[in-house]
Design a protein that fits this description.
By secondary structure, the protein is an alpha/beta fold. It has five helices and seven strands, in the order ββαββαβαβαβα. Bound molecules: guanosine-5'-triphosphate and magnesium ion.
């Protein structure tokens, strides 16, 4: 699937004001600065559709983008950013939590992980929380351009080991991307296409 049109729809912290209707949607979540907004831009072939910054904490709202007039991509604020005040962090967390718990249109969350780092407790905990809440998710490793293929493989293997050793019997789909080199996006879009088709089949009477 290619993205032919991508439009910003609305930003807010209020689930009630997110787009109504039954279009399937896919949310990008992960630590601040991991590259969520950059990946959305890379997938959509647009430089500034989602706002990016080298400083963590750029995205602060739930942002809906309409793709090909048929589904939504959602850019969310990151977690784990130490310089946001504690009270602000709580507000972030509560509306993000509500989004995941209540948003019926959400088909799959893409949990982004910086490929350079060792498995981090905050990400593993978030995965567990998604699992407990029965929210389907996939893992997307970002910034692959920063590591040589061997180091990428080593870090991914380490992540898989860690997940299997802790909570998971089965691993979720895993994607490896670089927004800088624009790699890995096609596989994500193919997967979304598959999930969209399944969703449409299931909603047909
Ligand atoms: P918040 O909105 O703050 O949570 O961050 P985010 O996850 O949306 O990250 P964002 O897309 O704003 O990118 C953060 C920084 O990482 C920016 O400086 C990007 O240019 C850089 N970046 C993102 N993706 C890549 C990538 O694939 N490769 C490289 N080298 N840098 C990247
Ligand atoms: Mg962002």
């Amino acid at each position: 699937m290619d993205i032919k049109s991508a439009q910003f729809v609305i930003s807010n912290t209020d689930l009630e004001k997110c787009p109504k209707g039954s279009l399937p949607e896919y949310a990008f979540i992960g630590r601040s600065n991991v590259g969520k907004s950059s990946l959305i831009n890379s997938l959509c072939h647009k430089k500034n559709l989602a706002k990016t910054s080298s400083r963590p904490g750029k995205t602060q709202l739930i942002n809906h983008f309409l793709i090909n007039g048929k589904w939504h991509l959602v850019d969310l604020p990151g977690y784990g950013y130490a310089r946001v005040s504690k009270s602000q962090k709580k507000v972030f967390q509560s509306f993000i939590t509500t989004y995941f718990e209540k948003r019926k249109q959400l088909i799959n969350a893409f949990l982004l992980i910086d490929i350079r780092h060792e498995p981090q407790p905050i990400d593993l905990k978030f995965m567990e929380w998604l699992g407990e809440n029965q929210i389907p998710f996939s893992i997307v490793f970002t910034k692959a351009d920063k590591l040589k293929p061997k180091a990428q493989d080593r870090n991914i293997a380490h992540y898989k080991q860690e997940m299997l050793a802790s909570t998971w019997e089965e691993l979720p789909p895993i994607f490896v991307t670089s927004s800088l080199h624009r790699t890995g996006g096609e596989e994500i879009l193919k997967y979304i296409d598959l999930l969209n088709t399944e969703y449409l089949q299931n909603t047909k009477v």
